[in-house]
């Protein structure tokens, strides 16, 4: 087991600079097969707590495991909301209350650096590939969600437009019936006036005939 305990030294960028930023921002590219405390023999931190074993995904030490005080690891996230991915079935309170607070600073490599430069670069390339694909998946999920929301909004707008159009059609139908009734009333009135005109002409003609008859006598 490696014992160099300087996380900020050269070659141990798992917890320093770019490597740490990458770990924090992107997480492990693969799920852990074992929990951070599922190893033997146990290594204890400066305060007698079993140290947690993690996998470094830094550019200089990809895939290399290291030990750190669990409190130090947990406190580095500064948020219990990010902890379930490291839960491994352990009670959330174990992370979120008892162990948030800074830890003792214990840190050391779990194993020696025996990887070749080629394999390191290969692991980094695979790591980056997984992170890029994960990001693409997240973007696709976000885009799909946004598209679904947009389609739902369009469907709601379409339904509202159809309801409005139906109401407009009903209103137009009602107005058309009113106009038809008015036209029918005008036609009836016209027929009635025509009949009255005929009757009036007949009366006038009869009167003229009577006057002419009286004049002839
Ligand atoms: Zn400790």
UniProtKB/TrEMBL annotation:
Entry keyword set: Membrane, Transmembrane, Transmembrane helix
Biased composition (Low complexity): 1-18
TM helices/strands, residue ranges: 198-216
Region ranges (Disordered): 1-31
Tree of life domain: Eukaryota
Protein's name according to its UniProt entry: Uncharacterized protein
Taxonomic path: Eukaryota, Viridiplantae, Streptophyta, Embryophyta, Tracheophyta
